[in-house]
Amino acid sequence: MAEGLRDDVARHNYSVDIATTGRAVLEAFTSYDLILLDTDLPDLDGVSVSRAIRQTSMIPIIAFASADEVDQVLLLETGCDDCIERPYRSRDVVARINAVLRRTAPITSPVPFASPVPFASPVPFASPAADLDSVVRARPRGVPPLAAVGEDLVLGEEQGQLIRVGNRLVIDPALREARLGGELLTLTRKEYELLHLLASAPGRIFDRTELMIKIWDYPAGKPVNAQASRTIDTHVSSLRRKLGHRDWIANLRGVGFRLDVPGPRRGGRQAPSRLVAADPEEAPRHGWIRAEGAIESA
Q1: GO terms for molecular function, please (predicted)?
Q2: CA–CA separation, 284 vs 157, rounded Å?
């Protein structure tokens, strides 16, 4: 099976080598640009291999997994960028490889970002952390700053600055790190990108199609299927757990998701809260009053 897949992928101008054990993968992965990881290895399971790689590198990983949702969740939580269910078609594998490499390739020009308000100057992509392996080319998705409109101020960050949501959540785009109450959150690549996107406009609703296009490079115009929806739900659920409160990410059923700051509840609903910069003098233009409305949690 591995030889057949290698030949199919090689026909699309990729150079492919086969490692037959998990240990062989761990010894050689720094020489490659992407890993196709089978979870059924003779010495180590795929989850252990993915976790070990993520301790030192952000090299893209695509895992082959069973249809069991639990297996896929474990692989995604340990750092895999994508999962492909077995049995698979070679052309689907090649399409996923192309999509992942597009997302992680160096970008020299800003990427337009759909916004409900006009935005100012775009922000270049931040560089990956300096201590990552030299083969890493993963960069956060570009998010231009949002400008103030009328009396409502929307969070907008310039290069090198932190994204602050409330007085506890801080995101550092340059280091691809997120801290909650000063504690570093352990996030997978996709979890970080999802949190970064939601935090770029707290209170703004992102529908499933937009999330799939921006985070998973889903084809524009293609309806979001059940598997894609499960992918979003899995990552949202994992993020909520790591943030320690499900109300950080509100699910407006049938509409989309938005980032909120958990606050006191009244009658089973979250009370309106104000999002402000941690240091008003350092960033006086930050802060945004979110719209009131009923929130439903998934």
Answers
A1: phosphorelay response regulator activity; transcription cis-regulatory region binding
A2: 12
Q: Give the type of residue at 287.
A: G
Q: Is the peptide bond before 110 cis (omega within 30 degrees of 0)?
A: no
- Cα 203 to its chain centre, rounded Å, is 18
Rounded Cα–Cα distance for residues 253 and 119 (Å):
28
Domains of the chain plus CATH, in order, are 2-104 (3.40.50.2300), 109-298 (1.10.10.10)
CA distances from 214 to 31, 33, 193, 198, 242 (A): 28, 22, 9, 11, 22
Q: Does pTM top 0.70 for this prediction?
A: no
Residues 6+ apart with CB under 8 A from 291: 203
Report the side by side order of strands in the sheet with 169-172.
163-165, 169-172, 177-180, 183-184
Q: Which two tokens stand for residue 51?
A: 């976790």
- Which residue is listed with tokens 């790190």? 177
232 phi-psi bin (left φ>0, alpha ψ -120 to 50, beta other): alpha
CB atoms within 10 A of CB 2: 12
What percent of the chain shows pLDDT beyond 90?
19
CB burial of residue 176 (10 Å; 0-12, 13-18, 19+): buried
CA nearest to 136, candidates 110, 107, 104, 160 = 104
Torsion over CA: 65, 77, 156, 105 (sign): negative
Residue range 143-174, pLDDT digits in tens: 333 322 222 223 434 335 788 888 889 999 88
The answer to whether 178 and 195 have CB atoms below 8 angstroms apart is yes
